[in-house]
């Protein structure tokens, strides 16, 4: 820590908050700990009665947390991302368009294994909206060894793809098949179909239609084929099921040459959506 004249402090880093008091208006920190003094700050500091201030005695090899956070953000960010204002060693990564998050889980783990480095993100392959915050970089100490940042930048360069990026959604023609004897025979009202319809619209895709099938493998397969014949590029199959691997819907999808990668459960509607990929 070093005490210097305000006029000589340009480019120096504050060691503590500086409070500005304007009677009847405000009493709050005008400059925060870690703030880098700029030329335009000098008149304000003098008006606050600050002839001298305590600043960081910059040791060679150390860099300020804001610079470190900015370098980290630039190292991990790929297409579809912009940056927030840097504040207190933190930079947020913002989606520039609607799309899906594509993240290198290995890269994120490697970066977070470094001391004093934090990269927090939303879950991989999650849909996001333009302007949404999807990640944040953070450097913990006020000043950090530049070698740590250089190591982080090196980790990011090891990967062929950026550690974080937003890929735009592709518009698809979508068909929906709802299974279950209770819905097929009209004993209960289907409530999950409208939810899927809204989601399809939110994804920028086109819903070709929704059909219903009894708890019958051949009927489920026939409904799926009908949507494909009508030009569907994606078929969503939903219905009241258990998570038993022998359930009819996964069996029907496998019978058409596909494979079941994920099974989602909706707590609100007691329905499931099955994601099946072609074989």
From TrEMBL:
SUPFAM superfamilies: Molybdenum cofactor biosynthesis proteins. InterPro entries: MoaB/Mog-like_dom_sf, MoaB/Mog_dom. CDD domains: MoeA_like. This is MoaB/Mog domain-containing protein. Coiled coil: none annotated. Residues 175-279 form the MoaB/Mog domain.
């Amino acid at each position: 820590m070093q005490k210097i004249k305000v006029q000589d402090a340009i480019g120096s880093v504050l060691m503590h908050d500086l409070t500005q008091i304007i009677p009847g208006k405000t009493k709050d920190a005008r400059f925060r700990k870690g703030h880098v003094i700029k030329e335009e700050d000098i008149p304000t500091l003098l008006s606050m009665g600050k002839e001298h201030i305590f600043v960081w005695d910059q040791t060679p090899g150390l860099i300020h947390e804001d610079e470190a956070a900015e370098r980290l953000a630039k190292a991990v960010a790929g297409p579809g991302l912009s940056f927030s204002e840097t504040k207190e060693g933190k930079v947020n990564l913002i989606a520039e368009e609607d799309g899906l998050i594509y993240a290198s889980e290995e890269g994120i783990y490697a970066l977070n294994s470094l001391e004093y480095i934090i990269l927090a993100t939303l879950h991989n392959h999650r849909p996001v909206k333009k302007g949404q915050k999807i990640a944040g970089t953070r450097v913990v100490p006020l000043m950090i060894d530049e070698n740590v940042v250089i190591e982080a930048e090196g980790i990011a360069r090891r990967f062929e793809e950026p550690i974080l990026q937003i890929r735009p959604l592709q518009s698809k023609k979508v068909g929906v098949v709802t299974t279950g004897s209770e819905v097929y025979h009209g004993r209960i009202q289907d409530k999950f179909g409208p939810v899927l319809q809204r989601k399809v619209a939110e994804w920028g895709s086109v819903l070709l239609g929704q059909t219903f099938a009894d708890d019958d493998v051949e009927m489920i397969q026939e409904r799926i084929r009908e949507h494909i014949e009508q030009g569907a590029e994606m078929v969503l199959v939903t219905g009241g099921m258990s998570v038993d691997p022998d359930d009819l819907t996964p069996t029907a999808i496998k019978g058409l040459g596909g494979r079941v990668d994920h099974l989602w459960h909706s707590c609100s509607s007691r329905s499931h959506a099955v994601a099946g990929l072609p074989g």
